[in-house]
Write a structure and sequence with these properties.
alpha+beta, Glutaredoxin, 2 domains, five-stranded antiparallel β-sheet, 32% helix
């Protein structure tokens, strides 16, 4: 669960926000979050809205949350997202369809922004392929290490059907080593190396390793390269890394792997298997 989702739990599940304009919704949320003494400098903005399917009158609001958070002796600046549901004068932090069991917090997300289907992120297939698939992944996420190679192995067979766009999204709090691995992979991509993504998932390194030198040693052993710390700190590498994180934030990605199929979030991650390729 995201840190701000935990903090937002201080809000009532349903609360009256009479004549709920966007400004009033943001003010209500800010007041609720500010009730936590460890949170300061809170800034909120609405990134988008979407009607909740099958729930007449309900809209999902996608809210960007920026704040300073004190955790013990540490102070962190966080930039996260939250989904809230509005119907008339009622706000809910969670919304569940009692007939189907669908938890809309898990299934509703903004559509993937078309401008981010970039050639720099296209790792398989053609830009004009019938379907576009966007994958956000951490190379040390256990599920990702199964899912990404399997799905790529299949989709790369059909370049006219699937254009696969890959976005590096390491989870530093869970796998600190993934950040350095990701930057090394970007350096390799920019050097013109092929099949970087597939090979990235075969690197063996302790996910908790923080020594950049040791992490690069593991990467270089797998890739037969000689990348050093200066290579992963090049402006072009950092620019691509930061862009991928920005896209993840706009698309409200919070975990890995997250998959968008033809612009829509795919909770199953397997819609590509439903496509008739012949």
């Amino acid at each position: 669960m995201l840190l701000m989702q935990k903090l937002s739990a201080t809000l009532l599940l349903c609360a009256n926000v009479f004549a709920a304009t966007d400004a009033e919704i943001l003010a209500f949320l800010k007041k609720g979050i500010a009730g936590n003494a460890n949170v300061s400098n809170i800034e909120l903005s609405i990134n988008g809205k979407k009607a909740v399917p099958g729930m007449s009158g309900w809209q999902a609001y996608f809210v960007a949350i920026e704040a300073d958070v004190k955790q013990g002796n540490d102070n962190r600046h966080i930039n996260q997202n939250g989904t809230y549901f509005i119907s008339g004068d009622t706000l809910a932090t969670e919304l569940v369809n009692v007939k189907t069991g669908e938890r809309y917090n898990d299934t509703i997300a903004p559509d993937f922004p078309a401008q981010f289907y970039s050639k720099n992120n296209l790792i398989s297939g053609r830009a004009n392929a019938k379907y576009k698939v966007a994958i956000f992944s951490d190379p040390l996420c256990p599920f990702c290490r199964r899912y990404v190679p399997e799905s790529l192995s299949y989709m790369t067979k059909y370049p006219a059907v699937f254009g696969v766009y890959y976005f590096h999204y390491p989870l530093p709090t869970l796998h600190p080593a993934a950040v350095t691995l990701t930057k090394a992979a970007i350096a390799a991509e920019q050097a013109g190396m092929e099949n970087v993504t597939m090979r990235l998932y075969t690197v063996e390194v302790n996910p908790n390793e923080k020594d950049e030198g040791k992490i690069l040693d593991a990467f270089n052993k797998t890739f037969k390269t000689k990348f050093g710390i200066a290579d992963i700190r090049r402006p072009s590498v950092l620019k691509q890394y930061e862009l991928d994180q920005k896209v993840a934030q706009i698309a409200m990605v919070s975990g890995t792997p997250t998959v968008f199929f033809d612009g829509k979030k795919d909770p199953t991650k397997n819609k590509y298997k439903e496509v008739k390729v012949k």
